[in-house]
Design a protein that fits this description.
Structural class: alpha+beta
Distance between the termini: 49 Å
Shape: extended
Strand order of the largest sheet: 1-2
Largest sheet: 2 strands, antiparallel
Oligomer: single chain
Radius of gyration: 18 Å
Helix content: 40-55%
Number of strands: 4
Mean pLDDT: 92
Order of helices and strands: EEHHHEEH
Strand content: 5-15%
């Protein structure tokens, strides 16, 4: 089994654990993301990200520009801050 211990804590290292339980992982992901999808559908991007800081932090591209600085850097693309 792919386990190891560090400081008395046993770690279990297996890639793609959600793939082992696809129905459960899909249900869990839907439960935490549905509110954001509903907010975007009801309010539109600008109003939704203005109302929810967590949703705003997830905005990577808007108006044909990369507005997430680490993403722009990693992709060697121009960064432009979102100005909503």
């Amino acid at each position: 089994m792919p386990t190891y211990e560090v400081d008395g804590v046993i770690h279990y290292c297996v890639p793609n654990m959600p793939g082992v339980v696809p129905r459960t992982s899909t249900y869990a992901l839907t439960n935490v993301t549905l509110k954001y999808a509903s907010m975007l559908a009801a309010l539109g991007v600008e109003d939704a990200i203005a109302r929810d800081k967590h949703l705003a932090l997830g905005l990577n591209v808007y108006g044909s520009y990369v507005c997430n600085e680490p993403v722009a850097h990693d992709l060697h693309m121009e960064y432009r801050a979102y100005r909503g």
